[in-house]
Amino acid sequence: MKTWFDTARFGMFVHWGHSSQRGCELSWPLVGGVFSLPFCSNIPVDEYHSTGKTFNPQKYNPQEWARLAKRLGIQYAILTTKHHDGFAMFHTQQSDFSIQNSPYGKDIVREFIDAMRENGIRIGLYFSLIDWHHPDYPAFTEADKPYVFGQHRQPTPEQWQRFVQFMFAQVRELLTNYGKIDIIWFDGGWERSPEQWQTAALNEMIRSLQPDILINDRLPGFGDFDTPEQFIPPQPPDRAWETCMTINESWGYNPADTNFKSARQLIHTLCEVAGKGGNLLLNASPMGDGQIQPELLERLAVVETWLSANQESIIGTSPGLEPWQFYGTSTRRGNRVYLHLLMKPYETISVRGVPIKRIKSVQVLANRMELNYSTRCGIMDSFTNSDPLGELTIQVPESAIDPYATAIAIDFTPADAAL
Ligand code: GLC
Q1: Residue 67 to residue 65: CA distance in whole angstroms
Q2: What digits encode the pLDDT tens for the residues 144-182?
Q3: Of the four listed, 16, 64, 121, 199, which is most buried by Cβ atoms within 10 Å?
Q4: Closest ligand 1 atom to Cα of 227
């Protein structure tokens, strides 16, 4: 089934919770950290949960986030409505452990959805199946440390029945109280079996509440798209996919982690993901007061400038040439092919196996600078074939090179047009 998601290319992930006040990773500190998050601390369980009572992000301005997202060409934004720590960022009738009972009081999820929707950005809700705070899950305690994958304390059948009812009810609230939701993004499926999660029933409930919704692959056994985490898959999966990625190495605001990717790395990642037909779900971490961390904003500002001239080569495109045709990444839209130069060329670049007699123009996308080029194909082919495939050699002078990534647009006349 084709959907908007297939060519969205750029999404924004927002990992935010009461723990952002302390400036630490979401949830994982309470279980003592995890190998995949090198800057995650170990915080006693009660101490971790205690900041739920003081959460008051007075500078939360989702309109600002939405405007930033819009300027970046972002097509959808996904917020952590409840992370593994169990704290609901929305008003819920299922428990007291939510933003409703914090000093902030207002429904953060609703404010996020309203702002994004107003700016034409589609809505995704992250929801953790794991709940390390709920007594029936059962809650994670100090005695359960260290966290070992595959070894999780199990509830009694009665507890589990109550928990599943609670979890279903929260999902129902999220998919009933906020209008149309485009994505539900589950996480944490590894701690229980699909039968325990009752994934089949959950899937059915979701589809009946929101018939057009997309579900990620972390609802075990279900889902519409793959979610490689922190890397670009070597071979693109054979269905829709999205790489989720952090700008440093933490999902939540964590000042101890200064291992930031450069703006150039982010731009290159976006080009590569687009060239492989996937989406990049790039994480932005707000601080405890609601403002996005300045180091991230600086980098996003550079990405924004690059995209202001090159967005057309990313958003809404399809994958371009085959890897053997060009030693870089490429996308396409109709009869226009975009090459992304992620390494500086030595004078010329070559593109192979393209209809050389139908090349109309070769330009630097950002400033429409025309580039000189020459073409070749097999000699006999050039006599006998009116539409031969051949080699295109493009001259790329220093002045054409963008310091972040150079996008070149090649226009072809349509195959059926007279040559
Ligand atoms: C992992 C982590 C979680 C994070 C998620 C984002 O599953 O457990 O903290 O939210 O990745 O993809």
Answers
A1: 5
A2: 999 999 999 999 999 999 999 999 999 999 999 999 999
A3: 16
A4: 12
Question: Could you tell me how far CA 207 lies from the centroid of its own chain?
Answer: 22
Which fold would CATH assign to domain 320-412?
Immunoglobulin-like (2.60.40)
At residue 415, the pLDDT reads 87
d(CA 19, CA 24): 6
Contact status, residue 392 vs residue 351, Cβ threshold 8 Å = yes
Write out pLDDT tens, residues 191-209: 999 999 999 999 999 999 9
The response to whether residue 251 sits with its C-beta less than 6 Å from ligand 1 reads yes
> What are residue 31's phi and psi, to 5 degrees?
-100, 5
Nearest to 62 by CA among 75, 77, 84, 83: 77
Residues 6+ apart with CB under 8 A from 314: 9, 10, 73, 270, 271, 274, 307, 331
- Provide the pairing of β-strand 373-376 with 389-395: antiparallel
pLDDT at 382: 87
* Per-domain residue ranges of the chain: 4-313, 320-412
Band (416; pLDDT cuts 50, 70, 90): confident
What gap in Å lies between CA 69 and CA 74, rounded to an integer?
Answer: 5
Atom of ligand 1 nearest to the CA of 15: 10
Is the pLDDT at 419 greater than 80? The verdict is no
Span 4-313 CATH architecture = Alpha-Beta Barrel (3.20)
Mutation test residue for ligand 1: of 82, 140, 229, the one with most atoms within 8 Å of CB: 229
Atom number of ligand 1 nearest to Cα 126: 10
**369 C-alpha to center of ligand 1: Å?**
43
